[in-house]
Design goal:
It contains 38 helices and 20 strands. Strand 9 (413-417), helix 19 (425-431) and strand 10 form a beta-alpha-beta unit. The protein is 52% helix and 10% strand. It is globular, with a radius of gyration of 35 Å.
Length: 886
């Protein structure tokens, strides 16, 4: 404690000396014998009344536990400094009160900020007296930096508040040479082993992005980013809960200095770099929630159409088509209008209300991992995201945007098919962030160039982007192989240095029951896809009657950094040939598909559908199904597949609920053999043959987890021996994977040998196989294991039969060109005939989607018509051989 030193003049007047001593003692008592009373300090014990008033006043501000846990998890011995962008008593008092009530380090010190009005009365009088006496003796104000007051308080575990930008801040630091608090913190860190953590804090008075043209409200009362006092108070009381706080990633000052130790920076340079880094971090964090600045449509269009790359294309197009440049430019302008979104934050809020109502009306809620959401939020602070969900239903994009919106992540710009641009929903989708793309534009160089420039602009402006890599909704329930057009455009944006990195986020969106179930069945059986229209949307109101569609499941895979991936693959993208670039697109496309498959949530509907369709009996009991289900669950648990909570907690109860649902929906029929109708112990079931494709859809929801096991099982069965080695299985596994390469995305990181070994371990774990006691890498098949191998290998039977149908068509196909649509129609007729003649067993094999994949595969092998019969026969023999084991 710095003692007060009084130096009274010498006097012979003892009475005056006595009075001086009394006055000095009084001053010492009032000031606790120190001048160290500063207005930058607000003590924690401000009084119950004021503390209660703060608590009531700030009660409308939302502070999530996940945010405060960031502070709670800091090392216990750390010195905590909170950083805000702009000087604000409002924010300081909130954090002071909030963290004090939660038992966290709260900012009692506020650098370069005078706190007078909220001081307790006794301390305010001490401040006034101390500063008056100090100034009367030294003609200067006391300095908390030079006196060591701030240093002492920080070392005594008092947290502090630091503002990075303040009025005349540069003038104060560089002209008046006032102490820079950041430099002071650096000096403190260099003198101690205790870590100093600077924790950026952000307060949001709304999630709307900044606009290039401010509104009148912004001009008069400040923007949401930097609101004035009136706007802060009005927002707080008018919309409680709209105001919320975020805690950005703490900066370890010791680590910051260690990273720059070799650079020989001066302390002034270090302070400048640290301040800049904190500003960038806060701005990036804010943008990760509000999104980038919104520019007018005219400004966006001007930027795209005047781009030098597009101008060259327009000039070439004008010359090629022999039309004036202005006409080519007019056409490009029309294309921009056709493509571009009209992103509206206000309309997104409206969409959020509608989607919330839909979810509550027909679903039982959304299941999502909050830790995954927080991870995505943290990654979005480093740059914009490219979200790539699977596509099962028209409401996928609504669900994902809604989930991002309620978790304070900007809704993305979404690639949508041009078929959805019909009035009036088209304009509404545009306002929600949808931009429209034609299904095919091969050969239209001007359109493709305009579209590419639009995507480049979204990337440059750092908007989040969402697209469906499958191209359209999956009608079969499994992932469709990737369509690489938009993915390649995004990678070209990185190649052209439009962004420093690109982060892809694979997302699984699944449903207990999908809305479009009946229409998918119709399309698979050769029916025409109905075009989207307002009338079709109105008819969909029947879905909104009751909660009959179960839950929605969302899972986020670990994001894929393009920059990091290229580094791991040792690829310099700007040096790749066209063929190598195409290989890169395929690699990344398959990587994303497999990432989504790996986080697919396995539902009871999917597992029960597997057990029903893979049963070897036409009539089966519930116990028979449960045995199959247990086998599949054991396999899924071994491979750590995500399961729903209902499957994890009570598999039997979850399965019984689904069986009842399938009975009600006429997928299966119950034949009661017991005495009482409600006694299910004696019930047996049969499959409604016409509903097998419906069950196939739900089976395919989780089929990706079983395909490696199916390949391995069939390879074992093909050995036709109870003893074998793993090396004997590799050729068959490779052959099967190659045959179905257009059905299932292959793993780009692991060879077939990896999956053979992995599934052998799973089979050993489930007593399907037993390792030979003496011979290495040799295994014996158990009697129970033989039955279980068929339970896995039979997953392939519908595909074998579909491919067999296509081969029968190719055997008699005339040697003349036909469109794929015409071919599939003829194949469908042959398939129906073969099914009626019982040449194939499964109705789900009569799938147009499977036919198209088979045609594509055989065409890649040079088989297109009856002229290649010598190539067709080996495939027919091979498939017939495999079907014998099934």
């Amino acid at each position: 404690m710095k003692k007060l030193k009084w130096k009274p003049k010498k006097s012979v007047n003892k009475s005056a000396g006595k009075k001086s001593n009394v006055l000095r003692d009084w001053k010492n008592a009032c000031l606790d014998e120190t001048y160290e009373h500063y207005t930058c300090y607000l003590p924690g014990n401000i009084g119950r009344l004021l503390s209660f008033a703060f608590k009531c006043f700030f009660s409308g501000i939302r502070a999530d536990k996940a945010q405060t846990d960031i502070i709670r998890n800091l090392p216990k011995d750390s010195i905590v400094i909170y950083a805000i962008k702009h000087k604000s008593s409002f924010e300081h008092l909130f954090y002071f009160n909030q963290y004090n009530n939660q038992g966290l380090p709260y900012p009692e010190i506020n650098f370069d900020h005078n706190i007078r009005i909220w001081q307790p009365l006794a301390r305010f009088l001490k401040l006034l007296l101390s500063r008056t006496i100090y100034f009367s003796h030294r003609f200067a104000w006391p300095d908390p930096y030079k006196s060591g007051y701030i240093r002492k308080k920080l070392f005594n575990n008092h947290a502090a508040m630091l503002c990075l930008v303040q009025k005349k801040g540069v003038y104060r630091r560089f002209v008046k040479e006032k102490t820079d608090p950041i430099r002071h913190l650096i000096e403190i860190q260099k003198s101690t082993d205790r870590p100093v953590y600077i924790v950026p804090q952000l307060m949001f008075f709304g999630k709307n992005p900044m606009r290039s043209s401010p509104t009148i409200t912004d001009i008069l009362f400040g923007s949401e980013t930097k609101p004035g006092k009136i706007r802060k108070i009005v927002t707080l009381f008018k919309n409680p809960g709209k105001v919320f706080v975020e805690v950005s990633e703490p900066v370890n000052l010791r680590a910051f200095l260690e990273e720059r130790r070799q650079e020989n920076y001066s302390i002034e340079d270090l302070a400048r770099i640290l301040r800049q880094n904190l500003m960038i971090q806060i701005n990036r964090h804010r943008q990760s929630i509000t999104g980038p600045m919104l520019k007018s449509r005219e400004e966006l269009k001007e930027s795209i159409l005047t781009n030098e790359r597009l101008r060259r294309v327009i000039a070439d197009y004008s010359e090629k088509e022999d039309i004036p440049v202005y006409k080519a430019l007019k056409k490009a302008n029309t294309y921009v209008d056709e493509i571009a979104a009209k992103y509206s934050p206000g309309f997104i809020k409206f969409w959020a209300i509608i989607v919330s109502w839909i979810i509550n009306a027909i679903f039982e809620g959304i299941t999502v991992d909050n830790e995954e959401i927080n991870k995505i939020k943290n990654i979005s602070r480093k740059g914009p995201l490219v979200l790539i969900p699977c596509h099962r239903s028209h409401i996928d994009y609504l669900i994902l945007s809604y989930m991002l919106h309620i978790n304070d992540i900007p809704c993305p710009h979404i690639a949508a098919g041009k078929n959805l641009s019909f009035w009036p929903l088209g304009p509404m989708f545009r306002a929600g962030g949808a931009f429209f793309i034609r299904r095919a534009f091969k050969g239209d160089l001007l359109y493709s160039s305009v579209f590419s420039e639009y995507i480049f602009k979204l990337v440059e402006e750092e908007f989040n982007i969402e697209f469906f890599i499958e191209g359209g909704r999956s009608r079969t329930g499994k992932m469709i192989l990737p369509k690489l057009g938009l993915l390649s455009t995004l990678i070209k944006a990185y190649k052209n240095r439009i962004c420093e990195d690109m982060t892809f986020v694979p997302v699984y969106i699944g449903y207990d029951r999908v809305l479009e179930e009946d229409s998918y069945l119709n399309e698979l059986e050769g029916g025409q896809k109905k075009p989207e229209s307002l009338l079709e949307m109105i008819k969909a109101r029947k879905f909104l009657t009751k909660k009959r569609y179960g839950k929605i499941y969302i899972k986020f895979h670990d994001p894929i950094s393009l920059k990091k991936l290229l580094s791991q693959m040792d690829i310099e993208i700007r040096e790749l040939s066209d063929a190598d670039q195409a290989a890169l697109y395929r690699n990344l496309g398959h990587r994303i598909i497999n990432s989504i498959n790996n986080v697919t949530v396995v539902t009871p509907h999917a597992v029960v559908a597997c057990a029903i369709l893979n049963s070897d009996k036409k009539r089966f009991s519930q116990d028979h199904l449960m045995n199959h289900i247990e086998t599949y669950i054991t396999h899924l648990l071994f491979h750590r597949a995500p399961l729903t909570d209902t499957l994890m907690m009570d598999t039997k109860s979850a399965a019984e609920t689904v069986i009842d649902s399938y009975v009600q929906r006429k997928f299966i029929d119950r034949i009661t053999l017991g005495k009482e109708d409600n006694d299910t112990s004696g019930a047996v079931f049969t499959v409604n043959e016409n509903k097998r494709p419906n069950l196939e859809y739900y089976k395919n929801n989780c089929i990706a987890f079983f395909i490696p096991a199916a390949f391995t099982s069939l390879a074992i069965l093909e050995r036709d021996a109870f003893q074998f080695s793993s090396t004997e299985l590799y050729p068959a596994y490779k052959s099967l994977r190659e045959l179905f390469k257009d059905e299932f995305a292959y793993d780009v990181d692991n060879p077939p040998e990896f999956f053979v070994r992995k599934n052998i371990k799973a089979f050993i774990d489930d007593a399907v196989l037993i390792p030979h006691p003496k011979l290495p890498d040799t295994y014996n098949l158990t009697s129970a294991g033989f039955r279980k191998l068929k339970l896995f290998s039979i997953f392939l039977k519908p595909y074998f039969e579909s491919y067999l149908i296509v081969l029968n068509y190719l055997m008699h196909c005339p040697q003349k060109p036909l469109s794929i649509k015409e071919k599939v129609k003829k194949i469908g007729a042959i398939g129906n005939r073969m099914y009626k003649k019982e040449e194939i067993d499964l109705k789900e094999a009569l799938s147009d989607v499977n036919y198209k994949s088979a045609v594509k595969f055989f065409r890649s092998r040079g088989i297109q018509d009856s002229g290649q019969s010598e190539k067709i026969d080996p495939y027919i023999d091979s498939i017939a051989n495999y079907l014998n084991y099934l």
